[in-house]
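Known limitations

Structure tokens in this collection are predictions and should be treated as such. Users comparing against experimental data should check residue numbering before alignment. To illustrate the layout, the record for Haloacid dehalogenase is reproduced below. The input appears on top and the generated tokens appear beneath it.
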Amino acid sequence: MTIRAVLFDYSGTLFRLEQDESWLTELTNHDGEPLDIEAQAELMRRMTAPVGQVVELDAEHVHAWQHRDRDPELHRKVYLEVLKKSGVPHAGQAKALYERLIDPSQWTPYPDTEAALKAAAERGLKVGVLSNIAFDIRPAFTARGWDAYVDEFVLSFEVGAVKPELEIFRKAVEALGVPATETLMVGDSEEADGGARALGCEFALVDPLPTADRPDALLTALRRFGVA
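Generated tokens:
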């Protein structure tokens, strides 16, 4: 098989939202006590989990959770509830943290993100970023000049479909102008990103480890398919 296009997931694949101690130092629980290290780590896990409901929600918020990556308002609504249910009861603190979490400048790229994007682009492959997300991630790329390597951004809240629905993968390959059977999807979720296989794409799974612990998984994935 000849690979002529690569689609990369964003969160846990190209970038990772990593704990910044300065974000969490002022957070307090119901008793006014600072959140301990374990509570902080669990909070970040819940805010970045690609699939699966992370806290118990009422029917209204279950609906918001299920559609969060299609609608920025639902995304904000349900994640403020997740923060509340995760030990951040004070609305002002939760809103301030949420705004940081949806700021693409606060996300950390993996060490080989630039190299992987550049390697694919310089080989003449079409490159897309395909993400279940409710905010614009393009600034994370333009700030570093990496948008020069990306042909298309296909973001769930803009196209009204989410992974693993076939529709979002179909929109992505159509945007790149390459058949699914000649497209590689690289992502950190077997359930969400791996759904590309149903359309005929190849799939490479990477582990959403901390950025310091995953130096070259993207390049390794591309090499496995002969495109780096």
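For this record: Strands lie at 5-8, 15-16, 108-109, 126-131, 152-155, 183-187, 202-205. The two ends are 15 Å apart (CA to CA). Please report discrepancies through the issue tracker.
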